[in-house]
Amino acid sequence: MAATSEHAPRVLVPGDARPLVLVPACNRMLGELCYHVAASKYLDAVRISGCQPLIVPSVAPPDVDALLDVAHGLLLTGSPSNVHPQHYDETVLDESLPLDPTRDAWILPIIPKVLARGMPLFAICRGFQEANVALGGTLHQAVHQVQGFADHRDRDDDPVEVQYQVAHDVFIEPGGVLARLLEVDRIAVNSLHGQGINRLASRLQVEARAPDGLVEAFSVRDALGFALAVQWHPEWNAEDNPVSMRLLGAFGDAVRAYRGATSREQVSIKEEHATA
């Protein structure tokens, strides 16, 4: 059964301001210089949702609240790099795999702040793993080496179209956020990750699993707003994928609703000050 287009993003009319979605940059050495980069497929996904992406390289702790005051959503992207295992009390298993401590340093602390505000959060791949670690969970550093789990990695020497092709089904937990959004009990997804959920953080609820039982999606139990994380890559060729369009549409709807609620709150505060 295919997902319908009921939650596809709405069409914007001229002059309709797009709400702002933060997209974290990764940190990459090109030659002898460090560059802040974000794959265009994630920015395209934000635009498909009807929002405006803003790439953020990093944020110092004193500036976090000011940044969140002007934002309306957060999209956590995938990346070649992994969350440093020191954040869940382990040492690095494979020194050859890339890390991004600069991204870890500001993204892990900002996730609870975003959730506390009720700001919509959509986390993908590395972002999925970041959300679990930020809330107290742990990761398998090499899923393929854990007994009972399949190899969820892609092959680096394959063409990108092959890397992102459908790899396996995921089974959606009945009665959850994902089940309500998609109205199906399984979907076919791509798979490009070497790490995965070990211990799920206590605030999180499983939304879908791979055939081997590995967690592929979760939501936040006590979230005040949209808070969904997936291990696969819905941003890849999203416009050709009804499931991806429904997920991005729901995220965009939530971001617009959040902007509307915060705008009304700001107006109310201004009116109270004016009459005080």
Spatial arrangement of strands, main beta sheet: 4-1-5-6-13-12-11-8-9
Question: How would you spell out the order of helices and strands?
Answer: EEEHEHEHEHEHEHEEEEEH
Q: Looking at the chains present, what oligomeric state does this protein adopt? A: single chain
Q: What is the makeup of the main sheet?
A: 9 strands, mixed
The structural class is alpha/beta
Model description:
Strands 4-1-5-6-13-12-11-8-9 form a 9-stranded mixed sheet, with helices on both faces. Mean pLDDT is 92; it is low at 1-15. Strand 2 (26-30) and strand 3 form a beta hairpin. The protein is built from 7 helices and 13 strands. Helix 3 packs across helix 4 (126-134). 38% of the residues are buried. The longest helix has 34 residues, at 242-275. The protein has 276 residues and is of the alpha/beta class. The protein has helices at residues 40-48, 64-70, 101-117, 126-134, 160-163, 177-182, 242-275; strands at residues 20-24, 26-30, 33-37, 52-56, 73-76, 121-124, 139-140, 168-172, 186-189, 196-197, 204-209, 215-220, 227-230.
Short description:
By secondary structure, the protein is of the alpha/beta class. Helix content is 31%, strand content 21%. Helix 3 links the parallel strand 5 and strand 6.
